[in-house]
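Format notes (please read before filing issues)

Several people have asked whether sequences and structure tokens are stored in separate files. They are not. Every record keeps both together, in the order shown below: the sequence lines, then the token lines. Line labels are part of the format and must not be stripped during preprocessing.
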Amino acid sequence: MANNFKFLSNRIRDRIRLKLYGDFDGSSACELINVLKNYRNGSNQIFIDTNNLNTIHPFGMDVFKKNLSVLDTPIEHFHWQTKGTTIHRKEGKAVLRLIK
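Then the structure lines:
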């Protein structure tokens, strides 16, 4: 995990809010997936704030996107709070693109 990666989490009823800090690399992506696995039950909305990330490494996003399926959570439940995030559909699947 990037030395400076950290997050703050808050859960209120069926909503989870995660605020990410530092650099987002492959290890950080795995950490985020593990946190989301723990929180996913009973959560209808997941808010991820990436405004405080210094760098989003392409490999980190690849690792995150490839592991989203283990969450068994519809992409529609994710709400990204950042500049440059897009979620669109491609061939019936949700595709996430995050640009910092």
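For reference, the curators noted about this record: The chain is about 25% helix and 45% strand. The helical segments are 26-39, 58-67.
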